[in-house]
Amino acid sequence: MGFVSVLNFTQQLIQKRLQPGEIAIDATVGTGADLVFLARLAKTRGRVYGFDVQQAALDQARERLDREREADDGPDRRSRKAGAKLASVELLLRSHAEMAEALPPDCRGRVGAVMFNLGYLPGAEDSRVMTTPASTLPALEAALSLLRPKGILTAVLYPAHDGGGVEAAAVERWASELPGAQARVISYRQPQRPAAPYLIAVEKV
Amino acid sequence: MGFVSVLNFTQQLIQKRLQPGEIAIDATVGTGADLVFLARLAKTRGRVYGFDVQQAALDQARERLDREREADDGPDRRSRKAGAKLASVELLLRSHAEMAEALPPDCRGRVGAVMFNLGYLPGAEDSRVMTTPASTLPALEAALSLLRPKGILTAVLYPAHDGGGVEAAAVERWASELPGAQARVISYRQPQRPAAPYLIAVEKV
């Protein structure tokens, strides 16, 4: 049957925890795949905040989101996903390191899930724009402060690209040093493929 | 909700793959917990082979198995687990490194699952008796040769005890070097607890 991929495993962890009506954060919007995934889980009464430092990313994500909404609302009943209406989504052209200040105060301690998918924007004109530990580590701290108890933070790490190995190691060290009274951490990876993306997941206690 | 423990995650992987009527192997019987787990999954028409180099381990496992069978067959209907009759079990006082020779030839390429739970027998008089790479690595090779396509081999590694770290590293290296055409490998661990048990799982292609 095959082991589930790192991305599927990440989604399964989120799916089991994020409830309809909750707040979720996509810390690295990119082309918007995680954003749509979170908006489907949080459903109509939920809220999703998306962060990216590139306008091109937010534009792509907005288009993707609009297509999803059209499919939900369209006249073709077969394309409607019953009860799966999307949460409201707010996109912010800001560094994820600022997420604690950027969100309304009522989010603190109430966020169900935060997803990080590190590295650079696929297909971007300037692939030198990428996440680095200088902003990623404060962003992880901010994300953890926003989570509710039992809320989850996932980080998919890309050790293969330039600087990605350093960033992955920094994230893994940060997570491994979290006190057990504050959070639990697991990793899921493919030992045959040390350069492949892998997951660090953090559940707030 | 909490992440599933390494032992639960291991059992989930096996449970999804091992089918009623199949053959399974407990490569490190110990007190028999995995043995009973496998016998329940393989059910009445299945077969489970258990290996251990210590008679004390096999004795404990046999007792545990007998208790389980009594509970299944007993007059108290509440204690019966419907349809969960145990597979036939054969216990072998031999090194798991010899499993390919020790099993009937009809097992080759037909085994659904092999479980390794490395280290020493809990509560044993002589805790110097423990698995080592010298026998563990040939045992893993033998196990892989016995598995059917999509069959699974799990190894729970104990880096904390004397020699356990060396053994864990050896197993991890063995698994990480398996060609992708032969097998897929994942690891599941707790980065906050580098000395805690962790899982290497191998699915035959």
TrEMBL record, chains A, B:
<keyword id="KW-0808">Transferase</keyword>
<dbReference type="InterPro" id="IPR010719">
    <property type="entry name" value="MnmM_MeTrfase"/>
</dbReference>
<keyword id="KW-0489">Methyltransferase</keyword>
<dbReference type="GO" id="GO:0008168">
    <property type="term" value="F:methyltransferase activity"/>
</dbReference>
<feature type="compositionally biased region" description="Basic and acidic residues">
    <location>
        <begin position="62"/>
        <end position="77"/>
    </location>
</feature>
<dbReference type="GO" id="GO:0032259">
    <property type="term" value="P:methylation"/>
</dbReference>
<protein>
    <submittedName>
        <fullName>SAM-dependent methyltransferase</fullName>
    </submittedName>
</protein>
<dbReference type="InterPro" id="IPR029063">
    <property type="entry name" value="SAM-dependent_MTases_sf"/>
</dbReference>
<feature type="region of interest" description="Disordered">
    <location>
        <begin position="62"/>
        <end position="83"/>
    </location>
</feature>
<dbReference type="Pfam" id="PF06962">
    <property type="entry name" value="rRNA_methylase"/>
</dbReference>
